[in-house]
Specification:
Blueprint: H1 2-11, H2 17-20, E1 24-27, E2 33-36, H3 38-43, E3 47-49, E4 62-65, E5 71-74, H4 76-81, E6 85-89, E7 100-103, E8 109-112, H5 114-119, E9 123-127, E10 138-142, E11 146-150, H6 152-157, E12 161-162, E13 176-179, E14 185-188, H7 190-195, E15 199-201, E16 217-222, E17 226-231, H8 232-235, E18 240-244, E19 256-260, E20 266-270, H9 271-276, E21 280-284, H10 313-330, H11 339-343, H12 356-365
Antiparallel strand pairs: 1-2, 1-3, 4-5, 4-6, 7-8, 7-9, 10-11, 10-12, 13-14, 13-15, 16-17, 16-18, 19-20, 19-21
């Protein structure tokens, strides 16, 4: 029973290890057959039949839909030689088995065989493919401002450019002016323009488009800590600009830095994390003193209780020795104060050993002046 269930799952595409290890019929394109396990069959370029235990005659043939619409059971190689469409190994022909959807230029669809479809001037969509409302239409781009979904003939009559069957206006496939980071303009769809880090100017073509002049280039951090070199005004729509002249080697995008978040708090996170959170990244190794805060900063109050006393020592040591991320977890997880705000005691926008002496002075005096 277990072996039977294993092979049943194999027919559905979920083979168990037990079933894969069994020897079964392995069919090759020339119609020959061998008894092999799944791995051996795949290594030799065969098709493994999980439920067939013997190499019976015709087991390695299958349904072949021929250009004239007829069906014949032959080997995969013979089907290809006759210009047919091989459907499945060990499959049978049946009445109308090779019929499918045929799309006509006016957007209409009829079910017929491959040969009849071609003779009638249609485009065959495949055996056993059913007609449905949007199968034989697609996006038609008319000028730079209009996209409608029609058949290819209707699109041509409207003076449009057909984007292919089943294309959709929702995905904005129509080419418009795309301003590229090198200052040139070309015609791309919105998606292709974004892939090339361009700026789409909808409703116009390049002959009338006014593209932004590329500003100074530098490292641009994209989601996933990916770094590319782009002009600042082309980076802003995709990621966080690291400054004019900044480089991608070493990759600055995987480094943590100050991020001003929308809730008026600051977090030491990567550029990509900051952009994803809707924040403003100030740079790596930069403190949060430039972020707007909802609570006044108390310098040297490293444990964020509003007082400067001996209870701040442990948190300050963590800040100096282990950095902002560990300090956030250990001392600032409630978001009541900011890492740089309380630990950058000397006010130079960095938390480092130069803050130790000022911290001690503040601690002795019960606060900083």
């Amino acid at each position: 029973m277990r072996i039977y269930l294993g092979f049943l799952l194999c027919t559905l595409g979920f083979c168990t290890e037990e079933a894969i290890a069994q020897n079964r019929a392995c069919c090759f394109p020339d119609g020959s057959c061998a008894i092999l396990n799944s791995s051996q069959c795949a290594a030799q370029g065969g098709t493994w039949l999980s439920s067939v235990t013997e190499c019976d005659p015709d087991v390695c043939t299958g349904r072949c839909c021929l250009p004239d619409g007829s069906c014949d059971r032959v080997t995969r190689n013979e089907c290809a030689e006759r210009g047919g469409d091989f459907r499945a190994m060990n499959s049978h022909c049946a009445a109308n088995i090779c019929d499918g959807a045929c799309c006509f230029p006016d957007g209409s669809c009829q079910r017929m065989n491959w040969g009849d479809c071609t003779t009638a001037g249609g485009t065959f969509q495949g055996a056993r493919v059913e007609c449905h409302e949007s199968l034989c239409t697609g996006a038609c781009c008319i000028g730079a401002t209009m996209c409608i979904r029609v058949g290819p003939a209707s699109c041509a009559e409207s003076g449009g450019v057909f984007q292919g069957l089943r294309s959709d206006c929702f995905f904005e496939p129509c080419p418009v002016a795309c301003c590229l980071p090198d200052g040139n303009c070309t015609h791309f769809s919105r998606r292709d323009c974004e892939t090339n880090f361009g700026i789409s100017i909808f409703g116009t073509f390049c002959d009338s488009a006014v593209c932004p002049i590329p500003s100074a280039s530098g490292a641009c951090c994209l989601p996933g800590d990916v770094c590319v070199t782009l002009p600042e005004n082309y980076c802003v729509g995709f990621g966080a600009f690291q400054g004019a002249g900044s480089l991608c080697d070493p990759n600055p995008c995987a480094l943590r830095g100050a991020c001003c978040l929308p809730n008026d708090t600051c977090a030491p996170i990567t550029t990509a994390e900051c952009v994803a959170a809707g924040g403003t990244f100030l740079g790596t190794n930069v403190c949060c003193t430039q972020c707007p805060v909802s609570r006044p900063c108390v310098r040297a109050d490293s444990n964020c209780d509003g007082l400067v006393n001996m209870f701040d020592i442990d948190c300050f040591v963590v800040a100096i020795a282990q950095g902002g991320a560990t300090w956030e977890d250990y001392c600032g997880s409630d978001g009541s104060c900011q890492y740089c705000c309380v630990n950058d005691v000397n006010g130079d926008n960095y938390v480092n050993n130069f803050d130790i002496v000022p911290f001690v002075i503040c601690l002795v005096n019960g606060g900083c002046n």
